[in-house]
Amino acid sequence: MNSLPQHLRSEDRREFERLLDEVLRSAPHRPELAAVGQRLNPAQLRTMAIAASALITAAAAAEYQRYVRIRDELRHPEQVPGAADGAPAEPDPAATDLAAAHGAGAVAVVAVLAPLLSATAAVIFLLIGYILRTLDPGQSFAGTMLTAGWVFGALTVAALLVAAAGLLLTALRNGSSPESRARDAATEEVARARTAWETALLERGILPFLQEALADHPDHTGSEHADPEHQPD
Predict the structure, then answer these.
(1) Domain of 211, in residue numbers
(2) Structural domain contains residue 229
(3) Beta carbons of 221 and 40 less than 8 angstroms apart
(4) Which of 37, 40, 160, 230 could join 44 via S-S bond, C-beta 3.0 to 4.6 A?
(5) Quick one: 180 and 198 in the same domain?
(6) Is there a domain that residue 87 lies in?
(7) Is pTM, for the whole model, over 0.85?
(8) pLDDT band with cut points at 50, 70 and 90 for residue 83
Protein backbone atom coordinates (compact mmCIF):
# COMPACT_ATOMS: atom_id res chain seq x y z
CA MET A 1 0.00 0.00 0.00
CA ASN A 2 1.45 3.36 -1.02
CA SER A 3 -0.87 5.67 0.87
CA LEU A 4 -2.39 5.77 4.31
CA PRO A 5 -6.12 5.57 4.99
CA GLN A 6 -8.07 8.80 4.87
CA HIS A 7 -8.97 8.83 8.55
CA LEU A 8 -5.74 10.79 9.06
CA ARG A 9 -5.41 14.16 7.40
CA SER A 10 -2.69 14.55 4.81
CA GLU A 11 -0.40 16.55 7.10
CA ASP A 12 -0.89 13.96 9.83
CA ARG A 13 -0.26 11.04 7.48
CA ARG A 14 3.11 12.59 6.72
CA GLU A 15 3.74 12.90 10.46
CA PHE A 16 2.89 9.21 10.90
CA GLU A 17 5.40 8.27 8.21
CA ARG A 18 8.02 10.54 9.75
CA LEU A 19 7.66 8.92 13.17
CA LEU A 20 7.77 5.46 11.62
CA ASP A 21 10.93 6.27 9.67
CA GLU A 22 12.60 7.71 12.77
CA VAL A 23 11.85 4.55 14.74
CA LEU A 24 13.21 2.32 11.98
CA ARG A 25 16.37 4.41 11.68
CA SER A 26 16.93 4.22 15.42
CA ALA A 27 16.18 0.46 15.60
CA PRO A 28 19.85 -0.51 16.21
CA HIS A 29 19.76 1.62 19.37
CA ARG A 30 16.46 0.17 20.63
CA PRO A 31 16.79 -3.19 22.44
CA GLU A 32 13.16 -4.05 21.72
CA LEU A 33 13.87 -3.76 17.98
CA ALA A 34 17.23 -5.49 17.95
CA ALA A 35 15.92 -8.14 15.53
CA VAL A 36 15.36 -5.60 12.75
CA GLY A 37 17.48 -6.70 9.81
CA GLN A 38 17.68 -10.28 11.03
CA ARG A 39 14.06 -11.31 10.75
CA LEU A 40 12.62 -8.43 8.71
CA ASN A 41 14.45 -5.51 7.16
CA PRO A 42 13.34 -1.88 7.65
CA ALA A 43 11.72 -1.65 4.21
CA GLN A 44 9.54 -4.69 4.91
CA LEU A 45 8.54 -3.38 8.32
CA ARG A 46 7.70 0.02 6.87
CA THR A 47 5.45 -1.53 4.22
CA MET A 48 3.68 -3.63 6.83
CA ALA A 49 3.21 -0.65 9.18
CA ILE A 50 1.75 1.57 6.47
CA ALA A 51 -0.61 -1.19 5.41
CA ALA A 52 -1.74 -1.56 9.04
CA SER A 53 -1.79 2.16 9.78
CA ALA A 54 -5.50 2.12 10.67
CA LEU A 55 -4.78 -0.38 13.44
CA ILE A 56 -1.69 1.48 14.63
CA THR A 57 -3.25 4.94 14.73
CA ALA A 58 -6.34 3.62 16.50
CA ALA A 59 -4.17 3.11 19.57
CA ALA A 60 -3.83 6.89 19.87
CA ALA A 61 -7.29 7.86 18.60
CA ALA A 62 -8.27 9.85 21.68
CA GLU A 63 -5.10 11.95 21.62
CA TYR A 64 -5.44 12.50 17.87
CA GLN A 65 -9.05 13.69 18.14
CA ARG A 66 -8.10 16.14 20.86
CA TYR A 67 -5.12 17.39 18.84
CA VAL A 68 -7.23 17.94 15.70
CA ARG A 69 -10.00 19.67 17.66
CA ILE A 70 -7.63 22.13 19.36
CA ARG A 71 -5.78 22.76 16.12
CA ASP A 72 -9.01 23.47 14.24
CA GLU A 73 -10.14 25.87 16.95
CA LEU A 74 -6.92 27.81 16.55
CA ARG A 75 -7.06 27.88 12.76
CA HIS A 76 -10.80 28.57 12.48
CA PRO A 77 -12.07 30.25 15.67
CA GLU A 78 -15.81 30.05 16.12
CA GLN A 79 -17.87 33.18 15.53
CA VAL A 80 -19.34 34.97 18.51
CA PRO A 81 -22.64 33.23 19.44
CA GLY A 82 -25.88 35.08 20.13
CA ALA A 83 -25.89 37.46 17.18
CA ALA A 84 -28.53 35.40 15.41
CA ASP A 85 -30.71 35.23 18.53
CA GLY A 86 -31.22 38.98 18.75
CA ALA A 87 -28.64 39.34 21.47
CA PRO A 88 -26.50 42.47 21.47
CA ALA A 89 -23.83 42.05 18.88
CA GLU A 90 -20.28 42.07 20.06
CA PRO A 91 -17.89 44.56 18.47
CA ASP A 92 -16.67 43.32 15.13
CA PRO A 93 -12.99 42.38 15.56
CA ALA A 94 -12.30 43.25 11.94
CA ALA A 95 -13.78 46.73 12.35
CA THR A 96 -11.89 47.23 15.60
CA ASP A 97 -8.65 46.13 14.01
CA LEU A 98 -9.30 48.43 11.03
CA ALA A 99 -9.89 51.43 13.28
CA ALA A 100 -6.80 50.61 15.28
CA ALA A 101 -4.82 50.28 12.07
CA HIS A 102 -5.99 53.71 10.91
CA GLY A 103 -5.07 55.23 14.27
CA ALA A 104 -1.69 53.55 14.28
CA GLY A 105 -1.14 54.69 10.69
CA ALA A 106 -1.86 58.32 11.56
CA VAL A 107 0.52 58.18 14.50
CA ALA A 108 3.19 56.60 12.31
CA VAL A 109 2.78 59.34 9.68
CA VAL A 110 3.12 62.07 12.28
CA ALA A 111 6.08 60.31 13.87
CA VAL A 112 7.87 60.22 10.51
CA LEU A 113 6.88 63.63 9.15
CA ALA A 114 7.49 65.72 12.28
CA PRO A 115 11.25 65.00 12.55
CA LEU A 116 11.62 65.17 8.77
CA LEU A 117 9.97 68.59 8.46
CA SER A 118 11.75 70.08 11.45
CA ALA A 119 15.11 68.73 10.26
CA THR A 120 14.49 70.21 6.78
CA ALA A 121 13.61 73.58 8.29
CA ALA A 122 16.70 73.49 10.51
CA VAL A 123 18.98 72.83 7.55
CA ILE A 124 17.41 75.61 5.48
CA PHE A 125 17.57 78.22 8.23
CA LEU A 126 21.13 77.31 9.21
CA LEU A 127 22.29 77.32 5.60
CA ILE A 128 20.73 80.71 4.90
CA GLY A 129 22.02 82.12 8.18
CA TYR A 130 25.63 81.04 7.57
CA ILE A 131 25.51 82.30 3.97
CA LEU A 132 24.23 85.70 5.10
CA ARG A 133 26.84 85.88 7.85
CA THR A 134 29.55 85.07 5.35
CA LEU A 135 28.37 87.77 2.95
CA ASP A 136 27.74 90.40 5.63
CA PRO A 137 29.05 89.49 9.11
CA GLY A 138 27.36 92.45 10.69
CA GLN A 139 23.86 91.67 9.46
CA SER A 140 21.46 90.94 12.33
CA PHE A 141 19.09 88.95 10.13
CA ALA A 142 21.76 86.25 9.79
CA GLY A 143 21.74 85.77 13.55
CA THR A 144 17.96 85.45 13.54
CA MET A 145 18.11 82.76 10.87
CA LEU A 146 20.80 80.84 12.76
CA THR A 147 18.77 81.00 15.96
CA ALA A 148 15.71 79.69 14.14
CA GLY A 149 17.82 76.91 12.61
CA TRP A 150 19.13 75.75 15.99
CA VAL A 151 15.60 75.87 17.42
CA PHE A 152 14.33 73.61 14.66
CA GLY A 153 17.34 71.36 15.22
CA ALA A 154 16.36 70.97 18.86
CA LEU A 155 12.78 70.28 17.79
CA THR A 156 14.06 67.57 15.46
CA VAL A 157 15.86 65.83 18.30
CA ALA A 158 12.79 66.09 20.53
CA ALA A 159 10.52 64.77 17.76
CA LEU A 160 12.82 61.81 17.20
CA LEU A 161 12.76 60.96 20.91
CA VAL A 162 8.97 61.23 21.07
CA ALA A 163 8.56 59.11 17.93
CA ALA A 164 10.89 56.42 19.28
CA ALA A 165 9.05 56.35 22.60
CA GLY A 166 5.68 56.13 20.82
CA LEU A 167 6.79 53.27 18.60
CA LEU A 168 8.20 51.42 21.61
CA LEU A 169 4.98 51.83 23.59
CA THR A 170 2.93 50.68 20.59
CA ALA A 171 5.08 47.57 20.20
CA LEU A 172 4.83 46.76 23.89
CA ARG A 173 1.06 47.30 23.90
CA ASN A 174 0.52 45.10 20.86
CA GLY A 175 2.81 42.39 22.21
CA SER A 176 0.99 42.24 25.56
CA SER A 177 -2.57 42.57 24.25
CA PRO A 178 -5.16 40.02 25.46
CA GLU A 179 -5.62 38.75 21.91
CA SER A 180 -1.89 38.14 21.51
CA ARG A 181 -1.63 36.35 24.86
CA ALA A 182 -4.68 34.22 24.06
CA ARG A 183 -3.25 33.19 20.70
CA ASP A 184 0.12 32.35 22.25
CA ALA A 185 -1.61 30.20 24.86
CA ALA A 186 -3.65 28.44 22.16
CA THR A 187 -0.51 27.78 20.12
CA GLU A 188 1.20 26.25 23.14
CA GLU A 189 -1.84 24.07 23.80
CA VAL A 190 -1.76 22.81 20.21
CA ALA A 191 1.93 21.98 20.59
CA ARG A 192 1.24 20.03 23.80
CA ALA A 193 -1.64 18.15 22.17
CA ARG A 194 0.55 17.24 19.20
CA THR A 195 3.30 15.99 21.50
CA ALA A 196 0.78 13.88 23.43
CA TRP A 197 -0.53 12.36 20.20
CA GLU A 198 2.94 11.59 18.86
CA THR A 199 3.98 10.01 22.16
CA ALA A 200 0.86 7.84 22.32
CA LEU A 201 1.21 6.89 18.65
CA LEU A 202 4.80 5.85 19.20
CA GLU A 203 4.45 4.03 22.51
CA ARG A 204 1.03 2.40 22.02
CA GLY A 205 0.97 2.04 18.24
CA ILE A 206 4.18 1.93 16.24
CA LEU A 207 6.53 0.20 18.67
CA PRO A 208 4.10 -2.57 19.73
CA PHE A 209 3.24 -3.26 16.09
CA LEU A 210 6.89 -3.56 15.07
CA GLN A 211 7.65 -5.82 18.02
CA GLU A 212 4.72 -8.07 17.19
CA ALA A 213 5.73 -8.20 13.54
CA LEU A 214 9.24 -9.26 14.47
CA ALA A 215 7.93 -11.87 16.91
CA ASP A 216 5.71 -13.37 14.20
CA HIS A 217 8.71 -13.84 11.90
CA PRO A 218 11.30 -15.87 13.86
CA ASP A 219 14.93 -15.87 12.82
CA HIS A 220 15.77 -19.02 10.85
CA THR A 221 19.39 -18.13 10.15
CA GLY A 222 20.62 -20.09 13.14
CA SER A 223 19.16 -23.38 11.90
CA GLU A 224 20.66 -22.87 8.45
CA HIS A 225 24.18 -22.69 9.95
CA ALA A 226 23.76 -25.42 12.54
CA ASP A 227 26.71 -27.74 13.27
CA PRO A 228 26.58 -30.78 10.91
CA GLU A 229 27.71 -33.08 13.74
CA HIS A 230 24.43 -32.38 15.50
CA GLN A 231 22.33 -33.11 12.41
CA PRO A 232 20.38 -36.39 12.61
CA ASP A 233 21.77 -39.25 10.51
Answers:
(1) 10-78+194-219
(2) no
(3) no
(4) 40
(5) no
(6) no
(7) no
(8) very low
